[in-house]
């Protein structure tokens, strides 16, 4: 669980200025009652799966959610979800509809035989393993207009910020204490 000091440092990372929009991509499969929380708090959000979903699939789907610095939903995600692999955070200057379109392109990948597979990049453990393996072009395609991804680490007192600098992946540790 985050302390007040840790919450403040994390908020400074997620909300660095007025131009930058913070989003979270949340994993419904990892969050009990995510849909009821989205209904309760009413943040601007979209499911990353296209089309009409059966109720059981809607429960486990990934959701893109716009975060506001001082909102009860943002506080709930950070205080209740940090350290539980609920999802990742993304910083950008683009609107949520453009962000949704970009992230939907990342949901599926193909194996060596061309079979489509679901890619759970929004699991912080997966993202931290995947990004360092990418080529320069793959990083550019994956990030698109995203400035940085912020994730939890195994140590709840350290966050990681992934960005691109001079066409290379940059990893910064953020010490929350």
Provide a short characterization of the protein structure.
β8 (158-165) and β9 form a beta hairpin. The two termini are 12 Å apart. This protein has one domain.
Task: Please describe what this structure looks like.
This protein has 177 residues and is α+β, with helices and mostly antiparallel strands. It has one domain. The protein is 33% helix and 29% strand. The chain has 7 helices and 9 strands; from the N terminus they run αβαβαβαβαββααβββ. It has helices spanning 4-14, 34-41, 55-60, 72-81, 96-104, 124-130, 136-143; strands at residues 21-27, 45-47, 62-67, 87-92, 108-110, 116-118, 146-152, 158-165, 168-175. Strands 2-3-1-4-7-8-9 form a 7-stranded antiparallel sheet, sandwiched between helices. Strands 5-6 form a two-stranded antiparallel ribbon. It is globular and about 50 Å long. The two termini are 12 Å apart. 24% of the residues are buried.
Primary descriptors:
single chain; 177 residues; alpha+beta; seven-stranded antiparallel beta sheet; two-stranded antiparallel ribbon; 33% helix; globular
Element pattern in H and E: HEHEHEHEHEEHHEEE
If you average the pLDDT, what whole number results?
96
Q: Provide the structure class.
A: alpha+beta
Shape annotation: globular
Termini separation:
12 Å
Q: What is the number of independent domains?
A: 1
User: What is the gyration radius calculated from CA atoms?
Assistant: 16 Å
Largest sheet: 7 strands, antiparallel
Strand content is 25-35%
Q: What's the total number of strands?
A: 9
SS element count, helices: 7
Query: Going across the major beta sheet, what is the strand order?
Result: 2-3-1-4-7-8-9
Extract low-pLDDT stretches: none
Helix content: 25-40%
């Amino acid at each position: 669980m985050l302390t007040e000091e840790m919450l403040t440092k994390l908020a400074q990372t997620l909300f660095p200025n007025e131009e930058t929009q913070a989003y979270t991509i949340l994993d419904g499969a990892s969050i009990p009652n995510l849909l009821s929380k989205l209904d309760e708090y009413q943040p601007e959000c979209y499911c990353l799966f296209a089309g009409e979903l059966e109720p059981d699939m809607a429960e486990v789907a990934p959701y893109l959610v716009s975060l506001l610095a001082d909102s009860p939903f943002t506080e709930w995600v950070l205080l209740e979800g940090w350290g539980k692999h609920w999802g990742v955070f993304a910083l950008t200057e683009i609107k949520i509809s453009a962000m949704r379109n970009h992230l939907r392109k990342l949901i599926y990948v193909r194996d060596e035989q061309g079979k489509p597979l679901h890619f759970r990049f929004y699991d912080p453990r997966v993202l931290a393993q995947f990004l360092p393996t990418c080529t320069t072009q793959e990083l550019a395609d994956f990030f698109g207009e995203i400035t940085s991804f912020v994730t939890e680490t195994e140590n709840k007192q350290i966050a990681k910020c992934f960005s691109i600098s001079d066409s290379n992946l940059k990893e910064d540790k953020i010490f929350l204490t």
